[in-house]
Amino acid sequence: MKTLLVTGGAGFIGSHVVRKMVLDHPEFHIINLDQLTYAGNLENLTDIQDAPNYRFIRGNIVDGTFLEKLFQEEEIHGVIHLAAESHVDRSIADPMSFINTNIVGTVNLLNACRNAWKDFEGKLFYHISTDEVYGSLGSSGLFTEDTAYDPRSPYSASKASSDHLVRAYHHTYGMPIVISNCSNNYGPNQFPEKLIPLAINNILQMKPIPIYGKGENVRDWLYVEDHATAIELIFRKGSNGRTYNIGGLNEWQNIDLIRLLCKIMDEKLERESGTSEGLITYVKDRAGHDLRYAIDSTRIAEELDWKPSLNFEEGLARTVTWYLENQEWMQRITSGVYQSYYDQQYRDR
Ligand code: NAD
Ligand code: TDX
Questions:
Q1: Please, what are the domains in the chain?
Q2: What's the whole-model pTM score?
Q3: Per-residue pLDDT tens for 58-78?
Q4: Ligand 1 pocket residues where CB is under 6 Å
Q5: Which of 120, 178, 183, 307 could form a disulfide with 238 if both were Cys (CB 3.0 to 4.6 A apart)?
């Protein structure tokens, strides 16, 4: 039986990837390695925690010695690397934890693979990255896999750096790698510091919905399970050394997205139409706020026959239903340490 190491599997996207790999690949033993930072939550995986081909290990990728030991104890054939600090606003407040986890942690993982994999035959290091490495677009154009890197936040600079290092290990040492760069994900289990779950949480509590600047920034949104499907496909069929962009063909200005979300929430909560929109509050803009991201996914569509399966209205309605049905999940993770961070962020704006 082959062993696949998924890092960051207790987080938002990672939990969907772990579930998919555990259920779709009984021939693989899946190890989920996660430090369980504020963003990691094993509650995201209770449905598969007892599966015979699944095991959770708590550990920090910044600790190279721990990783070397893990790779000595386990014969790992493949890695899907999602563990990261992932929130742009946190990277503006505290860049160093992004440098440590996203850059040093990735190099530690690459070194552990290089040391353990005397023979690269049948091995793969799959690095999960973001469209933010390409920088910011004006009102037209799309990011392709050939777009020059131009990261502009500490988060995207740390992800760009890790992408370069993964490619360097491919070119220098011959390590088999693939990289995918995806647009904004949304869906169940997303930590409510990101725009969509934060707005859902605030609407539920009749708190202001903070919109940075004028709300005119544009993001491309992809349902998280569609991203997990793309990741599974790239893991199986992606070409060695290749990069794949993954996008939702689904661009929205933040303010339009929030208005749609408000409409869906009013309907689901049976509130008078316009109630949630009344909570929209324009606040100070994010420092260095990228204007627009948009993805050309031609390569993954043509080479791997992948496209998003859900339209946005459907995906957003499904997401809202999940959050309404899982309000205890939300209450638990927004209490304690997180609550003080949240209050602080809100006071500062
Ligand atoms: P997340 O913040 O929800 O989860 C990150 C996970 O990594 C958590 O479970 C956390 O405990 C774990 N982790 C953090 N530091 C660690 C460390 N030092 N050692 C071990 N585990 C650690 O993030 P996400 O939104 O699920 O993103 C997952 C990956 O996908 C990231 O690499 C991110 O850059 C990338 N990505 C995210 C999006 C998005 O829209 N969320 C889009 C494109 C790419
Ligand atoms: O309260 C808010 N108000 C607001 O207007 C928040 C949290 C965000 N925004 C804006 C900023 C962005 O233009 O909404 C947009 C989306 O913001 P985030 O949810 O923070 O996502 P973004 O900064 O676009 O980055 C996300 O997508 C790419 C993920 O957090 C990254 O991990 C991923 O790589």
A1: 2-185+224-249+289-309+336-345 (3.40.50.720)
A2: 0.97
A3: 999 999 999 999 999 999 999
A4: 7-8, 10-14, 34-37, 39-40, 60-62, 82-86, 101, 105, 128-130, 159, 182, 184-185, 191
A5: 178
